[in-house]
């Protein structure tokens, strides 16, 4: 008789736990390893829908395709943005000019920089990495710093080594630099930003960043 009651008992317990919202009893998930964060970033970037441009479709259908593609793209790339240390990259990219900015200006810069990643850097990377195998060749963790190295075979550019530098923030690994063939993204940006600010002004840097963002958001005429 007991063996017939056990399934009923288990079923009752499952229902009871569901009624009491079992997330209260959930075991805390282990934080992702650096290699998992990098794989998720690559997956999110490569998951950007490569849909037919709306001007190539007819009428209302073309408008719907455009809206759907834009929504999917924003959602996919926003997920990639969550894996990046935006504040850290922004501060290091501005270098000595960061401390001269007010908290509001710093916040404005982080927002503008994140939008450039979202609408310029990530979509361009999606086109470059699309359909390529990206094996991880190394993962190294040293305290709150980590590095992950990948190797890709690009049909035009050939063999390329891409390294990801990560930092642990509040228990989560976040990407704070990317190196392609030893060339650091952050150092490259810092050189460009410093040149513009030194020769012109910080306002001119923001103007150019906004101009680039506007160009990326406005579709080009066929």
Account of the 3D structure:
This protein has 222 residues and is α+β, with helices and mostly antiparallel strands. The protein has a domain at 85-217: Tgt2/MlaC (Nuclear Transport Factor 2, Chain: A, Roll). 55% of the residues lie in helices and 18% in strands. The protein is built from 7 helices and 5 strands. The protein has helices at 2-19, 34-46, 59-81, 86-94, 103-129, 185-199, 202-217; strands at 136-142, 145-154, 158-169, 172-180, 183-184. The protein has a 5-stranded antiparallel beta sheet with strand order 1-2-3-4-5. Helix 3 (59-81) packs across helix 5 (103-129), helix 4 (86-94) crosses helix 5 and helix 5 (103-129) packs across helix 7. The longest helix has 27 residues, at 103-129. It is globular and about 40 Å long. Residues 1-27 and 49-69 have low confidence and may be disordered.
Topology summary:
Layout: H1 2-19, H2 34-46, H3 59-81, H4 86-94, H5 103-129, E1 136-142, E2 145-154, E3 158-169, E4 172-180, E5 183-184, H6 185-199, H7 202-217
Antiparallel strand pairs: 1-2, 2-3, 3-4, 4-5
Helix pairs in contact: 2-3, 3-5, 4-5, 4-6, 5-7, 6-7
């Amino acid at each position: 008789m007991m063996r017939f009651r056990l399934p009923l008992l288990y079923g009752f317990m499952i229902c009871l736990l569901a009624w009491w919202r079992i997330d209260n009893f959930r075991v805390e998930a282990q934080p992702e390893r650096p290699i998992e964060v990098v794989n998720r970033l690559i997956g999110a970037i490569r998951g950007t829908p490569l849909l037919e441009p709306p001007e190539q479709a007819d009428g209302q259908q073309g408008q719907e395709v455009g809206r759907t593609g834009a929504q999917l793209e924003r959602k996919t790339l926003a997920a990639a943005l969550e894996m990046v240390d935006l504040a850290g990259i922004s501060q290091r990219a501005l270098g000595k000019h960061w401390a001269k900015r007010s908290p509001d200006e710093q916040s404005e810069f982080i927002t503008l920089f994140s939008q450039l990643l979202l609408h310029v850097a990530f979509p361009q990377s999606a086109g470059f990495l699309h359909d390529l195998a990206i094996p991880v060749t190394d993962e190294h963790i040293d305290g709150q710093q980590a590095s992950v190295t990948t190797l890709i075979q690009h049909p035009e550019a050939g063999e390329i080594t891409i390294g990801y530098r990560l930092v642990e923030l509040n228990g989560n690994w976040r990407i704070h630099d990317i190196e392609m063939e030893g060339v650091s993204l952050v150092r490259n940006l810092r050189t460009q930003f410093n040149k513009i600010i030194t020769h012109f002004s910080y306002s001119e840097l923001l103007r150019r960043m906004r101009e680039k963002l506007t160009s990326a958001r406005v579709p080009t005429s066929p």
